[in-house]
């Protein structure tokens, strides 16, 4: 394979960003490989940043985590608070507060939807 700038010279590798062949002279080394220009270096850095963020979002490899996603955690705490409030009123005054029971039930349904959705997509943030 030849350098895309210098047809007579053999390429030493592919640009990480645009995948064109680059010779020793055209290639610039970046942490993730070779690039052909500063625009491609920027693009390669952005792709690397996106790649690392993806690993964090999905909890892959070194970012593996047992923590549930923030959405699941928030809905869990909100539904717990509503259930505590409902049972507190019920135990104290033997009064069934239909309003807070309804809200507690709705929050629990949302919690389950958020939980299944987070499990399906593998999102860990
Ligand atoms: Zn390039
Ligand atoms: Zn070249």
Describe the structure.
Helices cover 54% and strands 8% of the residues. It has 125 residues and is mostly helical. It has 2 domains: 13-63, no CATH class; 70-121. β1 and β2 (21-22) form a beta hairpin. The model has no long low-confidence stretch (mean pLDDT 95). One zinc ion (ZN) is lined by residues 15, 17-18, 20, 35-37, 40.
Write a short abstract of this structure.
By secondary structure, the protein is mainly α.
- Indicate the low-confidence ranges by residue numbers: none
* Rough outline: rod-shaped
Query: Biggest sheet: strands side by side, in what order?
Result: 1-2
Q: Give the strand content.
A: 5-15%
Count of distinct strands: 4
What key attributes describe this structure?
two-stranded antiparallel ribbon, 3 helices, 4 strands, binds zinc ion
Layout of helices and strands, plus pairs?
Blueprint: E1 13-14, E2 21-22, E3 28-30, E4 33-35, H1 38-57, H2 70-93, H3 98-121
Antiparallel strand pairs: 1-2, 3-4
Helix pairs in contact: 2-3
The protein binds zinc ion (2 copies).
């Amino acid at each position: 394979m030849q350098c895309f700038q210098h047809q007579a010279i053999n390429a030493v590798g592919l640009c990480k960003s645009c995948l064109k062949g680059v010779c020793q002279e055209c290639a610039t080394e970046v942490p993730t490989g070779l690039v052909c220009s500063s625009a491609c270096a920027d693009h390669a850095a952005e792709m690397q940043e996106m790649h690392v963020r993806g690993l964090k979002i999905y909890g892959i490899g070194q970012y593996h985590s047992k923590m549930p996603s923030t959405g699941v955690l928030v809905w869990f705490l909100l539904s717990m608070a509503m259930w505590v409030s409902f049972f507190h009123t019920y135990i104290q005054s033997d009064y069934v507060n239909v309003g807070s029971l309804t809200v507690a039930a709705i929050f629990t349904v949302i919690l389950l939807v958020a939980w299944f959705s987070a499990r399906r997509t593998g999102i860990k943030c």
